[in-house]
Design a protein that fits this description.
By secondary structure, the protein is α/β, with parallel strands linked by helices. The chain is built from 17 helices and twelve strands. A hairpin with a 2-residue loop joins strand 4 and strand 5. Helix 5 packs across helix 8, helix 5 packs parallel to helix 9 and helix 9 packs parallel to helix 10. It is globular, with a radius of gyration of 23 Å. 42% of the residues are buried.
């Protein structure tokens, strides 16, 4: 990567945050590739080259403490890969990812650091052990991370529940504290303490997701990566889970990366929204600005696809074409085969993220002024969005979700 590109990325990472806000998460030119080549013998016999999939390509952003960053895009664009990079399940093959100033690679070495970042998965049933009772599922991270989180006030210097015990009597006291903490976590997410003796299959989808949230909260984390936590739920249950997450964020000071296909969900819960396409971030803006004045042509196509009764009879730009093969991405701007504004430059030169008002966008058309900004395309949506989110009631969540279901 050139020095100029690195400078642009460094400025971009810091620019979207207020000057006084120290970022909790910093992603700088992060990339992740996977070797998807056929077996060695097949390649030798059939004379096939090695095949590399670039799942995440030169992505940069920050997340401030207490903020929710929404990440949207079509399937296969790299959202879930970024989620796994942020919690240390994958290591970046290029660039760097910092959590509170420390590389996420330290997660493997420091249990105290690892407890501060947890993940909520898309399918609550698949992420819960069906052979364990709920109480044991939630107690597992408590026993792993030590006496401090059992008591409900995490202390990075205090680790090891069993190591701190002084015999059977001490073990019994610790088990009682674990049970009390499990009861408190279940009640915190709107379940009953009596539910800890049940198995996951005895709960509904929304209740299972609440159990997943309780397990994630067990270690007293600062940062939660939410990988489509509501996509498997119906609309009314989605609203309940979203309001629960907003209340927990307010009460506990949590920071979220919220990944979703549902733009209505992101509009309700996110403070800023990033739009991904084929492994790259193409637009990043405050929520109200993105929904009122979308800049990138891909963002506009996504927003045009949202059903809206108020736009009945108006012309819409259909999402044209299919996502290109990620094993052979297009040259230049990856979106140019589907973009109605593409020109010769778009086909040869890859755009960099650059500031445009309060947003950052990677688009030659916006940079050159060939594409006017999205003012008027959905200006009413931004104001309507702010009013709903500021109200923060269950009814508002239901309204936001039902309008797009």
């Amino acid at each position: 990567m050139s020095a100029a590109s690195t400078t642009i990325a460094a400025d971009f990472v810091r620019a979207p945050l207020p000057a006084h806000a120290r970022p909790l998460v910093e992603v700088i030119n992060a990339g992740r590739t996977f070797d998807v080549s056929p077996p060695w013998l097949n390649r030798v016999i059939q004379r096939q080259p090695r095949v590399v999939l670039r799942a995440v390509d030169d992505v940069s952003f920050t997340i401030a403490r207490g903020e929710t960053l929404g990440l949207v895009g079509e399937s296969g664009c790299g959202k879930s890969t970024i989620a796994r990079l942020l919690v240390g399940l994958y290591a970046p093959t290029s660039g760097s990812i910092l959590f509170d100033g420390e590389p996420v690679s330290h997660f493997a070495k420091s249990r105290a650091m690892r407890r501060r970042a947890q993940m909520i998965f898309q399918d609550p049933y698949a992420s819960l052990n069906p052979r364990w009772r709920v109480g044991r599922i939630i107690a597992e991270p408590l026993k792993l991370h030590g006496a401090a989180v059992v008591d409900g006030h995490a202390n990075d210097a205090d680790n090891g529940v069993r190591q701190a015990s002084g015999g059977l009597a001490s073990d019994a006291r610790i088990d009682a504290r674990v049970d009390a903490r499990v009861d408190a976590l279940l009640m915190q997410v709107g379940l009953s303490a009596a539910d800890k003796v049940k198995y996951p299959h005895q709960f509904s989808g929304g209740q299972r997701q609440r159990i997943s949230i309780a397990r994630a909260l067990a270690t007293q984390p600062d940062f939660l990566v939410c990988d489509e936590p509501t996509s498997a739920l119906d609309v009314s249950v989605q609203a309940q889970v979203l309001n629960l997450m907003k209340n927990l964020q307010r009460d506990l000071g949590l920071t979220y990366l919220f990944i979703s296909h549902n733009l209505a969900v992101v509009r309700y819960i996110a403070d800023r929204v990033g739009v991904m396409y084929l492994g790259r971030l193409v637009e990043l803006a405050p929520r109200s600005a993105l929904f009122a004045r979308p800049l990138h042509p891909y963002t506009r196509m996504l927003l045009e696809a949202i059903p809206d009764l108020e736009k009945t009879g108006t012309s819409r730009v259909a999402v044209a074409g299919e996502v290109p093969n990620p094993l052979a991405p297009p040259s230049g701007c990856a979106f140019h085969p589907r973009c109605p504004f593409a020109n010769a430059r778009c086909k040869t030169e890859r755009p960099e993220m650059k500031a445009h008002g309060v947003a950052w966008v990677a688009c030659h058309g916006i940079e050159e002024g060939r594409i006017r900004d999205g003012a008027g395309d959905g200006a009413g949506d931004g104001a309507r969005d702010d009013a709903r989110t500021d109200a923060g009631t269950d009814a508002n969540a239901n309204t936001v979700l039902q309008e797009t279901s």
